Structures are given as C-alpha cells and as structure tokens.
UniProtKB/TrEMBL annotation:
One annotated GO molecular function: methyltransferase activity
Protein name: Methyltransferase domain-containing protein
Domain Methyltransferase type: residue ranges: 46-139
PANTHER family: METHYLTRANSF_11 DOMAIN-CONTAINING PROTEIN, METHYLTRANSFERASE TYPE 11 DOMAIN-CONTAINING PROTEIN
Keyword Transferase carried by entry: yes
Record-level GO BP terms: methylation
Amino acid sequence: MREKVDVKRVFSKNKEAYVTSSTHAFGKDLSLMINWLQPKSTMKVLDIATGGGHVAKNLANHVEEVVATDITEEMLENTALYLESHKNIYYAVADAEDLPFTGENFDIVTCRIAAHHFPNPERFIAEVNRVLKPEGQFLLIDNIAPEDCKFDQFINSLEKMRDHSHIRSRSLIEWKNLFVDHDLSIIKEQTHKKVLPFREWVQRTLDDDETIQHVGQFILESDNETKNYFQVDTEDDIIHSFAIDEWMALGAKRTD
C-alpha cells in the first residue's frame, strides 16, 4: 500500500529526530498515562507504532514486559539501541492494522501520536480489541481534527504538506464511534491544545528550504480566525509556534 511505503520512508529517514523530539520525548501525558493505567508488575504491554520508544520506556519500569512494535524496521532498530538498558522491552516489526500476535494476549495496549498515519483506523481498532485480554486497557493519544470543517481541512492540509506519510487527523466523533463499534468503553478522556515549536516541527521531516518556506507561508496566509484557533505565534512574519488539538483516551475492552 502506497501510504505505508511513505510511512516507512519518512520514519526511516528521520528515526533519530523522533527519539530527540521535544513533542514526543516529553509531555505531561507520559506521566499521566501511568496514573490512568495503574500498571502492575505482572502485566504485559503492547506499544503500537512505538516510534522513539517513549511510551515503552516509561511503562517498562512498572510492568513485566513491553512489546514495542513499529512498521519501520530502521526506526525500531534505532529505538532498541536507545533503550538497550531496559531488558524487559522486546521488539517486533508489525503493521498496526495486522498485528502478528494471538488474541487476548495483552493487559494493556498503547498507541501515542501515531494513528494519524494509519490508512484504515477501523482495522487498527479491531486489532487492538482482538489482542487485548478481557477487560484489558487501551490508551490512545493522538492529534485530532476540529469539528469545524474549515479548521479540519487546514490542519490536515498543513500536516500533509509537511509530512507525506500523514493520512488524516480524525475528529473526536470519528474516534468515539470506532471505540463503540469495536466494544471499547471510554473510561477517561481529555482534550487539550499541544503547542508545537514551528522550526523543530517542520525540520523533523523536511530539510528542503523551499518546501519549509512553503509550509510557513501556508500558515501565514491563513485567515485570522484560523490563526487564532491554532494559536499561531509570530513576530515579523517568523513563526515561533502554533497549537493543535490532542486527545488522550483510556478505553477498556467490554466483555458483556
């Protein structure tokens, strides 16, 4: 599938940037997820699309084992080196929409800042349900699109312009419907604005000055309502940062 080839190409090229990225390596959600999940030393965790391995690293200290997966082999190899001191993290190249694991195998499944790269989210959620043990927990953290069509179109166009492997940031309603359709109850959730430093964000996937300038102009030429919604911070037409919507949801596999 063309989209998954793009994902592998982009993440293979930028594997180190996702380890060091401030957006991925830090964030209150990493400590909050421990509080929400209440992991136990007997638990087995699956981290889907682990990227730089930040979720796997944080959970490894609390559970028996973490299986970190990614569709990009080079990304996974780089992350394994970064996390080599954590002896209870295991690695598997895997497609989020076709997981190579038996059913009802994990106490916890996580996926953070990755699902907007998945072309078939319904298959992804179905796979999550399949591999979760009865009453197992699923933690999803991802960028979401605003309900307003204008803002939805703007942010998805911007993301695609900066990263060809971006498929779509989906709306809260779309995600909630997928949870319901696949027997996952939402236990806790929160949405918030995530501030992105523009230069770091754009250079994580682009190194061509002309394309970077084009991405910046797209933001600068947007109307004031759009700039206000995405909290665009500029000075003399230099973009310092902007903010996008992010959703963090804790689901549980229904058994009734």
